[in-house]
Predict the 3D structure of the following.
Amino acid sequence: MVLERGWVILVGGGVAAVRSDICGSWGCNDFGPNVSVGGLYKFSPYFGVSGTIDYVKLGAVEKNPEAPLNVAFESEVIEVAASAVINLMDSYAGSGNYRAKRKRFAVPYFRIGLGAVYYTPTSFPRDRSLDDSQVTYDPERNYPAIAAVLPVGGGIRFYINDEFSIAPELSYRVTSTDYLDNIGPVLANGARKDEYAVVSVKLQYTPVLKNKIFSKKQ
């Protein structure tokens, strides 16, 4: 059996969408960018632990005709999280003497983690953009603020060579705050905390060094 262990460098980018008090669907979202860097330590072909830092920009326009607030928002979010990464298939194909030489081209994986978000939202009239708006609404609390986040997601890692893989990924973040949109429970329905989703593509790089400290097989 191949016991693959070692470090992998992660770099990614994508788009993000929010689910908040004023916007619960794709149509009212202003999709924002996502940039991610981090590292993954592989304990085996099935399991690893990752640490990542993500920048996310969220934004939306109110979509609630029953209780119009005339509001839109943008929010700058920095997320730091650690996750368990579970491959749903062995990274290696084949059997016997050929097993260690044959990595699978595609390996689906699942990840779940825990972390924190450092966020700064700004709300403003819905018929304007933040760049040209002459009015911004008062902050609902002191910003920047910190909240807990639970990232859950998965993707498919495609093997390129022993150093590089590429992985399209879909993940969903559940937070402990209701203020990512600067709209608290007093102004809107606060029964559900704010959440956001990220669709991204991650480049995975495994350095190959002679001393084998980054990647080794036992």
Notes: The chain has one domain: 4-217. The first strand starts at residue 4 and ends at 19. The chain is about 0% helix and 55% strand. The chain has a mean pLDDT of 85.
